[in-house]
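Progress report, Aim 2. The chain analyzed during this reporting quarter is listed below.
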Amino acid sequence: MRRKRVSISLIFIVIIGIGIMLFVKDNSYKNTVVRIQTINVNFKSKEISSYDVLSNGKIQKSHIPHNFGTAEKIKIDRNIVGTYTRKNQTHLRLLKKIPLYDQKKHKVDDTNYWKMINSIIKNVHFDIYKLTLFRVGKHYYAYVQVNQWILDAGTLYEFNPKSNNLKKLCDLDGKEIVNISR
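Predicted structure tokens for the chain:
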């Protein structure tokens, strides 16, 4: 009888341990990296929706109210970047360097934006349709919408100016990012 109780207790402890490990593992990949506000590009309505960008590369509609400050936003003229093909792969090149202006029409002299543009040119292998750069505090982001005919595909990247590293955060389809918050 005593042996049966010990066996049942051990089985119970093992099941609880496995459950805790699965719960921790499952939730560790769902940490919010950044919050975004988007508009749907396929509809005339420009209703803003909020999403959490998760560490696993997915987005999740945000149901928790979040105080979005206004990130510094720079829309880049797509004509500063040209494309060429080498070994059946599209490559980008900088055609001209122009002054950058934020959403308030103020000139921006932050050299990290040009570092980010050069990193995008080096790492993105699609024709760019829209390029929007964001800065939230000391964090830099780029939303790159590529020209793929009928698709409205875009990718959000985070840029580390110290290492010149461009990290892909998530893909978006049919959405345009209008604001970012941490």
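The helical segments are 2-28, 111-123. The radius of gyration is 22 Å. These observations will guide the mutagenesis work planned for the next reporting period.
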